[in-house]
Amino acid sequence: MTNRNDARLIALDWGTTSCRAYLMAEGGVVLAERRQPLGTMAVTRHASATGTPHVLAFEQSFEEICGGWLESDPDLPVIACGMVGSNHGWAEADYRAVPADLVSEGIVLTRVSTRRGVTVHIIPGLIADSALPGVMRGEETQILGALTANLRAGTLDYASERIVLLPGTHSKWVRIIGTTVKDFATYMTGEIYALLTTDSTLSRLSVRPVQSDWMAFDRGLDVARSPAGRGGVLNTAFSARSLVITGELAPDQVEDYISGLLIGHELAEIDPAWLADEPNAILLCGEAALNDRYRRALQRLGVDVDLAVPGSAPLGMWEIAQITGLLTLVKQ
Length: 332
What we know:
Blueprint: E1 9-14, E2 19-25, E3 29-36, H1 40-50, H2 54-72, E4 78-81, E5 95-97, E6 100-101, E7 110-113, E8 119-122, E9 125-128, E10 134-136, H3 139-153, E11 161-166, E12 171-177, E13 180-187, H4 189-198, H5 214-224, H6 233-236, H7 239-245, H8 254-269, E14 282-284, H9 288-300, E15 305-307, H10 312-323
Parallel strand pairs: 1-4, 4-8, 5-9, 11-14, 14-15
Antiparallel strand pairs: 1-2, 2-3, 6-13, 7-8, 9-10, 11-12, 12-13
Helix pairs in contact: 1-2, 3-10, 4-8, 5-8, 8-9
């Protein structure tokens, strides 16, 4: 049985809205987990409001989350992924151009040193250099974690392409062969949902539901794929207000209706090739609540769906720590 004395790594999944920290033992076993609403946006806002130097604000947040673990074991290596490596994060990490092998031994980690003497190693993101460039930070690590079980078992299919879908603030559709990311596309579905349901004319007529209303969600899906949906989301979104005014939608159905509408438009607008019949089902790699919504939407289109193992980000960070030799930095 593992305990905290077996800790070998601290891993940070540090995104836009939250930071998840993991204390990990051999094999990527999570010994302890902490989550704080200290995403990169919150940290930078705090730095601006208080006049705290940008780098110091991130260091203070890091100490708040992980300081106790480091007091017990100051020699633990630290790895991080996500928006912490963006131009509004702690330190800007490079992008690797696709196609990119997620297990390449040439991965270069960006290093940030704290006043405590701890070095945080930030994983690079990926970039698809096209007319409208695509970028990702953190999702590449989630994908690697989702593939870990197959990698360890030697059952990963290196010949067939598959699609990985990572729903979230910025939903990512990723083409992957083996461990190589070939291409990806981004939809700001989660961010637009947050804006519409918290700070728009639509939100003023809505009431937070006690539980998910799947009928309202399905209605949004259907509208997005109906002839009326051809007007695009900028046109159909207003129906979340007009339907309440006309009594056809209850205030506590608005949020689920908007969720279905936005996800429906995402699926309607994605290149049909992404939803083509593939030898493998689409692999959903997100949090449970979002997985439920996307799985429901995809299955209504007749698309097969597999669910990635929970906790894929820490598993991915463990694998990269091994690949880059970071785990050998632990003092004996």
